[in-house]
Give the backbone structure.
Amino acid sequence: MIKKLLTLGVVASAFTLSACSEVPQGVVGGKKPDEKAYVAADNKFVVSGWKSGDPVTWENQLKARSQGQDDYSKAK
């Protein structure tokens, strides 16, 4: 009985301590906190027609996206 409890305690301790060695996860290559939003992305996942670093095309993309989500403009 004592042997089983001791084994269970060792296994529980090993399981608990294994969580301490987890590698922290974070954003790799993310935007810097002091960058403007229209400069942040420069990869293959951006919408065509938008150029990184151009605030005018950024504003146009935001307007087009918000019009697609506006129920009032859909009802017209």
